What we know:
The chain is an alpha+beta fold. The protein has helices at residues 37-41, 51-73, 114-127, 129-133, and strands spanning 9-14, 21-26, 32-35, 80-92, 95-108, 138-146. The strands form two sheets. The protein has a three-stranded antiparallel β-sheet with strand order 1-2-3. It has a three-stranded mixed β-sheet with strand order 4-5-6, with helices on one face. A hairpin with a 2-residue loop joins strand 4 and strand 5 (95-108). Helix 2 crosses helix 3 (114-127). The termini are far apart.
Amino acid sequence: MGIRVRRRAEARWSGPIPTGSGHIRTGSGAVDRDYSLRSRETDDAPLNTNPEELIGAGLAGCFAMSVANLLEEAGFTQVDVNATAAVNLEETAAGFRITEISLSVTGSAATLVDEEFARLVDQAKRTCPVSLALAGTTITTALVKVV
């Protein structure tokens, strides 16, 4: 049997949504932050996070690792991959929904060409565990390039 991982996180919310606040903490303690409606709606809530930001960070981290792994499995060396996620939260007729996550992916490796990189990025989109967990959301690769 292969690797089996179980990670934990917890969240607390107090008060009405417009004025209340919450706290998010990962089991490792790496993230231990407050959040609020303001931290979800604006970029100026100091030192606060939000669920969408954490989803984006999780997807970007897993995706970069997946692409790097695929590059190494394909025989590439000196691998470096960067992934950035932009998560869209929108109010729809059905309620609030994460409607799209756009990934910008750059990478470098000895002898890597754009076409091979694009193919491996597409493969990572279909095999990255976090991408698969977010299957109900449109995930696009907004930019794929070799640097």
